Amino acid sequence: MGAALSIQSVEEPAATKPVAEILTSVMAEIAALAGDADRLQDVIGRLMPEGDQLDHDVIRQAQSIDIIVQRLQGLSQFLQTLSSDVPMGWRLDANTAADGLLLADLAHRLGGRERNAGPDISSGECDLF
Q: What is the pTM of this model?
């Protein structure tokens, strides 16, 4: 796996952030994903054919997005509870973990480092089909 993360409680180097703040950031990302996935259910519903053209296996697979939404919401609530229970002095340098992310905007939100100026082509790929 990746580099080990260390929890620090005595010193507060500039690169560290409170663990509760990091957990809250991850919780917000997961909550946003849950909202996006929930909206996808509506899109999928509009794309589904009506009447005799329904493929029941495809319908079951499309309905699995509902469990994805529920799991993301559950993870978000779990992290919210954890973040409120973390001791105040616990700090973590999340930059190393964030640097390994492929989406620059996500890495910035989770790691907190300033993004490089210039075109934002590194924030992800978009394949239109």
A: 0.72
Give all strands of the β-sheet with 17-18 in edge-to-edge order.
7-8, 91-92, 17-18
Do the beta carbons of residue 119 and residue 56 sit within 8 Å? no
Residues 43-84: tens digit of each pLDDT? 888 887 776 677 788 778 888 888 999 999 999 999 999 999
